[in-house]
Amino acid sequence: MKTKIIAMYLPQYHETEENNRWWGEGFTDWVSTKNAEPLFPGHNQPRVPLNENYYDLSQVDVLKEQVQLAKRYGIDGFCFYHYWFSSSFKTLYKPAENYLQHSEIDFPFMFAWDNSSWIRTWSKFKKNANAWSPKKDNATNSAEDNGVLAQLEYGSPEDWKIHFDYLLLFFKDDRYIKISNRPVFILWNNYQRETLLQMRDAWNAWAKENGFNGMYFITRDDPYKDVSGFDSLFNYEPQFSGWLNIGFFGRVFQRIKYLLGKETLKKYSYEKIWKKILKYAYKHPGNFYGAFVRYDDTPRRGKTGKVVAGESASCFEKYFRKLYSLSCLREKELLFLTAWNEWGEGAYLEPDTKDGYAYLDAVSHVVND
Asked: HSE (CB half, 13 Å, CA atoms) of 46?
């Protein structure tokens, strides 16, 4: 069975009211990418897209060009990150909505709901929250500003229905990825577990009322949390095999540095993480597998970021080939690849000025072997 390669897709490349208000006029992830600085000898920053193609995802032609490129090199679909905070507030939705409205874009897609609050780096409300762009957090802490940019609120069953009805337009599209007539939907985080499980049951019922066999929910595997109750799991890489699996003493040491205000740049080995990915995959046949192209989030996080050092297209091809072959052998429908275009985290397949199309070529070699 040929596993479908689904590339994670970031919609943070078009101007929005929220971007302008939170991080400055005209902010997109390109701003972080362009302003990145090398932090050690040989550090590949800033990374520049081939032909300085700093595109605008509000333009439909850009989506069409990306799809043609992805198809040409063996990618089977995109998984859009979905930012829904409440029944009255969502953001970064325009690329997916444009995609839906243009049926001539012939390429499978799905959603991963990044269900967490957004905060500024200094906010005291750090639990279950994401500091999106620490290097741009210029606002000061004050009584009027607690640092919470967007609060995740699951709300009541009525709110769940509003969310479901919005997504139903996408689910009914023939291009939306389904397993056994069940729309595939990733719940990125397992916070407020009981509420999520109740919402899961409600969405399953509403999906059946609309002609599906229910929903197919996937959540990220996590060695420290209960992730049962979902249809499947996947390992988000390189997080799962990198900084989540550094061992008990490693986690304690990092926590102490954080509390002492001495958090510094964290470097990991590209090859070692890939070996951990394969080791875990062989031992856990039930999960969907996650792969990564490369990783460096210093454009967003500066000296407190994470760098997976030692990347190369040849090394990626070597290990990705093994994981893809294992996934096909075990007849898995999907394999998630981080990422198509997460430039602010150095996780991208798109061509750049340093490596050109080398990573896309690597995927093509693996798929067509």
From this structure: 17
Which phi and psi angles does 160 have, rounded to 5°?
Answer: -60, -35
For residues 272 and 102, give the distance between their C-alpha atoms in angstroms, rounded to a whole number.
Answer: 42
CA distance 343 to 346: 5
Going residue by residue through the chain, which has 369 residues, state the pLDDT in tens, using 9 for 90 and above: 899 999 999 999 999 999 999 989 999 999 999 999 999 999 999 999 999 999 999 999 999 999 999 999 999 999 999 999 999 999 999 999 999 999 999 999 999 999 999 988 655 555 555 766 776 666 544 445 678 899 999 999 999 999 999 999 999 999 999 999 999 999 999 888 899 999 999 999 999 999 999 999 999 987 667 778 899 999 899 998 987 776 655 656 556 665 556 568 999 999 999 999 999 999 988 889 999 999 999 999 999 899 999 999 999 999 999 999 999 999 999 999 999 999 999 999 999 999 999 999 999 999 998
Report in angstroms the alpha-carbon separations of 280 from 167, 235, 289, 291.
Answer: 33, 9, 9, 12
Nearest to 346 by CA among 10, 3, 5, 1: 10
Between CA 6 and CA 66 the distance in angstroms is 14
Separation of CA 326 from chain center: 22
What long-range pairs does 279-284 form, CB within 8 A, spacing at least 24?
280/235, 280/240, 280/241, 281/235, 281/323, 281/326, 281/327, 282/326
Alpha-carbon separation of residue 256 from 42, 141, 252, 262, 322 (angstroms): 29, 24, 6, 8, 37
Q: Which two tokens stand for residue 356?
A: 């050109």
64 phi and psi angles, rounded to 5 deg: -65, -40
pTM above 0.90, yes or no: yes
**Residue 279, C-beta contacts closer than 8 angstroms, at least 6 positions apart:** none
Is residue 102 a contact partner of residue 70, using CB atoms and an 8 Å limit? no
Domains of the chain: 4-368 (3.20.20.80)
